[in-house]
Amino acid sequence: MAHDGRSTAESADIVETPDPLDGDPRVREYFGPAWAAVQGFAELLRVHGVERGLLGPNEAGRLWERHLLNSAGVVNLLPPSGALVDLGSGGGLPGIVVAAMRPEAHVVLLEPMERRADWLRFVVGELLLSNVEVLRGRAEDVVGAVRADAVTARAVSGLDNLYRWAVPLVHPGGGLFAIKGARASDEVAAAASAARRRGWVDVEVREIQTVAGVEPTRVVRAVRVGGAAGVR
Question: What is the DSSP string of the chain?
Answer without folding.
Answer: -------HHHHHTS-----TTTT-HHHHHHHGGGHHHHHHHHHHHHHHTTTTTSS-TT-GGGIIIIIIHHHHGGGGGS-SSEEEEEET-TTTTTHHHHHHH-TTEEEEEEE--HHHHHHHHHHHHHHT-TTEEEEES-GGGGTTT--EEEEEEESS--HHHHHHHHGGGEEEEEEEEEEE-TTHHHHHHHTHHHHHHHTEEEEEEEEE--STTSPPEEEEEEEE-TT-----
